[in-house]
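Task: fold both queries, return tokens.
Query 1:
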Amino acid sequence: MRGTVVSKTRTGNNDLLAGKNSLVTGSTSGIGLGIARRLAECGANVMVNGLGDHDQVDAAVRAVDDAGPGKVVFSPANMIQPAEINAMVEEAVDTFGAIDILVNNAGIQFVSPIQDFPPEKWDDIIATNLSSSFHTIRAATPHMIAAGWGRIINISSLHALVASPYKAAYVAAKHGVAGLTQVVALELAQQNIPVNSIAPASVESPLVTGQIADTARVRGITEEEVVRDVMLAAQPTKKFVQIDEIAE
């Protein structure tokens, strides 16, 4: 589906995002898909990116396509491959004519005590959750500067601020995202390109709910206890954050 553009004549929300050109990494499921759909609802053109089997990818692209009047294109770029990331950004510019909005959302997780943490899992998580944001920002920024307008949003985590045991790579990566966001925000502050991060606590997404069983195993507690005493312990509402809340 690379490079396949869907054009429509429907009209969407008449707001500041109408006609803007966006790229959302990791948007074939979860938070990323919710953000991509919301951008489409607001009239933006959207490049969807992510991994998954053909049916999952097709369903995700169709959901974004159905959400709004703009163009939708899919890139299967792997977020651990810098060359593929650079090509994805250039494809977005070639397809839409510009890249106005970049949302770095791609993320993976692995739960393990540090002494058992597989080095290859560390490398993959750092590459996907942190380094990919550097590569997308580095590739997209020149286009935004040339246009005199841009928005960069990095989807971070509460783990950019505090730590949890058994998540060494994820916590390290999210702390890195916080630092990267601050540096780039300072560099682009006078270029009309705000750079921000969103750092939610536990969101009811596949990435979070997929950790429940592993966390229960590592901690030696039940899955219900993981949800109540680990994931939601610090959340005042004692409820998972919803994807639509992050997308909005």
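Query 1 returned. Query 2:
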Amino acid sequence: MNAAAILRILSIKDTREYVEQGDRWVPIPGSGEPSECARCGRNHEVHATVELDDGTTEVVGTGCATRAAMTLAKEFRAGESRAKRIAALNAEIVKWARVADEYRAARAKVDAMPVPPVVVAKVADYRYTITCGDATVYASDVSTFYLREREEQAVCSWKNKRVDEIEGITYSHASGAGKVADARKRLAKLAD
């Protein structure tokens, strides 16, 4: 057992993998990279690198570090909480990046399909239907600019229906890229 006192915390890391349970991310016990504690000799998946009063550094479990340096207990708890949030956010990023990749692949598959012709039909005074295969949009004006936008919307609607028909693709897939960006922003705030 090292008699040198802990002077300050250099870093705290949670090496465990996280899994989504409901609306929370929880650690999987035994899934991390264990590091042998310089204080107790056991392996810890959540550990701190600390600087000792003799100028050396050592890796210790956060519980052992807290007991060894009670004056730093608050910093250890805050650091451990932050390390857990970082690990959970990294797991969230991996999940949503996979979802976004699945969605991009589905969109690419649909974009490679031949698009049915777009048909404009007048159904009543000032009312038109614009169809593309089984997708229909409506218009009350078919001026040049507006008609082009409605035709594009009909094609987009047809493509969205094809994506929805691909097995395994759900509504949440379309928001995957946005959720990755959001999680990265939250992670960047923690890194400051």
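Both queries returned. Flag for query 2: The mean pLDDT is 90.
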